[in-house]
Amino acid sequence: MAAAEEPAKRRTGGSRTTGRRPAGEPRHRPSKGPAWAMRTAAEQLTELLGRAPESVSALKPTNDGWEADVEVLELERVPDTTSVMATYRVSLDKEGDLVSYERTRRYTRGQIDRRG
């Protein structure tokens, strides 16, 4: 086999950091990162509204914790594109406790967002 046809060899060991963790070492994830904030916002809004959110459409860290925009089905209709949806802005403190929420928008599921 010519050198160009030889299979690529994997590098093992060495002093170069690859960003990979050694086999068997647990994955370290911050307990209060973005994924945690999304789940927490959705769970707490579900508890208050009695409706499960469809998605989290925005998430940003704040000085006091997190702020999320959560999309909720408010009124199911047929056809599905005429169902009424709502966007709720949810504020969480650094511990994940819901501080406030407000409905910021209502729209039909099939509506295209013409804002910016």
Mind explaining what this structure looks like?
This protein is mostly beta strands. 14% of the residues lie in helices and 35% in strands. The protein is built from one helix and four strands, in the order αββββ. It has a four-stranded antiparallel beta sheet with strand order 1-2-3-4. Mean pLDDT is 82; it is low at 6-19.
- Strand content of the residues, in percent? 35-45%
Number of strands: 4
SSE order in H/E notation? HEEEE
Strand order of the largest sheet: 1-2-3-4
Coarse morphology: elongated
Mean pLDDT: 82
| Class from secondary-structure proportions | mainly beta
State the distance separating the first and last CA atoms: 58 Å
Give the biggest sheet.
4 strands, antiparallel
Q: Residue ranges: pLDDT <50 for 5 or more in a row? A: 6-19
**How many separate helices?**
1
Alpha carbon gyration radius? 22 Å
User: Helix share of residues?
Assistant: 10-25%
Summarize it.
By secondary structure, the chain is mostly beta strands. Helix content is 14%, strand content 35%.
Please specify the SSE layout and strand pairing.
Layout: H1 34-49, E1 53-61, E2 65-75, E3 84-93, E4 98-108
Antiparallel strand pairs: 1-2, 2-3, 3-4
Essential attributes:
116 residues, mainly beta, 1 helix, 4 strands, 35% strand, elongated
